[in-house]
Amino acid sequence: MEGSEPSPRPRLLLYTARYQFAQKNAIAATLAWVAERRGFAFDVYYDAIHSGLHFGGGNPEHFDLGVLTGGLVTGGRHLEAAAQALQRFEATVICSGRVALGSTFATLAESSNAAVYVMSEDAVVSLYDKVFSSLEVDWPDTAVMLSRSPGPGLDGIDAYCYPEILFRGAVGIEATISLGSLAELRTRGITQMVVCGVHQEQQEALTAMGFQVRDHAVIVNGDDYRTATYRLAQRWRDQQRGWIIGDPVLVSYSIPVACRERRTAIFSV
User: 196 near 146, Cβ under 8 Å?
Assistant: First the structure.
């Protein structure tokens, strides 16, 4: 109708980082519940190695995870998809470090009215400060620490651990986070620390910092992908509404839809 106000655009929270950034899966699981709470759609985009293996997925026992990440930026029309997303949605974009599409987001920010925030990779707590303040969500009192590689043959297992963060409404971090960032979390009111695959020595160090540490033995010595992901899925079977079956790379990219649709992930190739 002539003179009527345009319909408001749906809101999108988009997180982008390097695929090899250790904190990405923990951050993605956190942003998923924050976005849902505030009525935002949520998605991720990860830069990855371009090895010529253009179709994602595969057996992590035979390949480094960095070469299982899918198509090329140009051939996959990534730039077009990013531009369309910023025009279609009222977007808030959070970037951890320099990313391939960073200049695209910066160029389109003014015309699309997107809010684009570029944070250094070591500024995990500042990233959460920005997200919580922008979306008007209070800091929780619980963090979940995941280990990206707690033992042989478990590289990328943290991708499957998102239910531990999602269903608690917790702040997610990966075990290589700096001591300074852990101290910052204490100043934000984080008192509880749930750990997944974190070695005993690090748990003791967390306790010494004042955190109340809980280990539910989600990942134990001797686990492989199959045993660990089965245990994770069983823990949250009452909250789940479906499954995602895949390798760590596929699951990592699927965290937004898995959280939105309440799916737990099981390893398979």
Answer: yes
Spatial separation of the C-alpha atoms in residues 252 and 87, rounded to whole Å: 26
Strands (E), the chain: 11-18, 41-47, 90-96, 115-119, 142-146, 171-174, 192-196, 212-215, 242-246, 263-267
Edge-first strand listing for the sheet containing 115-119: 41-47, 11-18, 90-96, 115-119
Look at residues 187, 193, 186, 139 and name the one whose alpha carbon lies nearest to residue 164.
Answer: 193
pLDDT for position 142: 99
Q: Residue 71: which pLDDT band, with cuts at 50, 70 and 90?
A: low
Check whether 6 has a pLDDT greater than 70.
Answer: no
pLDDT digits (tens, 9 = 90+) for 101-124: 777 777 777 778 889 999 999 999
Give pTM, 2 decimals. Answer: 0.89
Taking alpha carbons only, the member of 8, 7, 14, 10 closest to residue 109 is 14
Give the H/E segment covering residue 34.
Answer: helix 24-37
C-alpha distance across the termini of the chain, in Å: 52
Q: What is the domain partition of the chain in residue ranges?
A: 11-267
For residue 96, the model assigns a pLDDT of 96
Q: CB-hemisphere CA count at 13 Å for 7?
A: 6
Q: b or e along 204-219 (b: 16 or more beta carbons within 10 Å of the residue's beta carbon)? A: eebeeeebebebeebb
The pLDDT value given to residue 104: 77
Of the candidates 63, 75, 45, 76, the residue with the CA atom closest to the CA atom of residue 255: 45
Length of the chain: 269
Report the C-alpha gap between 149 and 121 in whole angstroms. 19
Contacts of residue 42, defined as CB under 8 A and 6 or more positions apart, other chains included, come to 12, 13, 14, 15, 31, 32, 35, 36, 256, 259, 260
